[in-house]
Amino acid sequence: MVAAATLSLFQPENQISCGVDRTMEEVEAFESLVRNYQNMVFSVSARIVGNLGDAEDITQEVFIIAYDKFNELQNSSTVGGWLKTVATNLSINHLNRYRARWRFFSEQEHPVEIAIEDTPKSDRQELVEAAIRKLPDAQRVPLVLFHFQEMSYDEIASNLGISLSKVKSDIFRGREALKKILSK
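-> structure tokens emitted (184 positions)
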């Protein structure tokens, strides 16, 4: 029988070679930070990108950045807002990297259907989240940034690199599409 040993990433001999200089208390504090904010960071990313797998990847990226800046964040009262901002920016960057594909699908005559899990009708929040994921990217992203990230129309236009009138019309169309989806 072969015994498997588990080693911590933060063994003293590994700290020097990896340039990692964390104490066990810091590691535990960071793990606590991740546990406290992981759902918020994931939901921000999921709402913006509309893909749960991509949202998981973005969430990991957010916490990698947070780990690098943990000494600054550890005693900050604005850590939640900082994480939310980083998640928003990384999600927008992700969408911008795939803008050509995004435009292709958003310009189709018939929107692409996104398979989602059946959500219980009694849970209104889950129903709204599922409906938001069904929206085309061009409508979902500005709508989420406006209503969930509380960005202004000008901020959305700047971040997405689109005109102010396009932001307004996409948000309007997104709201109308949501009404139709939720009324079914």
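Residues 1-19, 111-122 have pLDDT under 50 and may be disordered.
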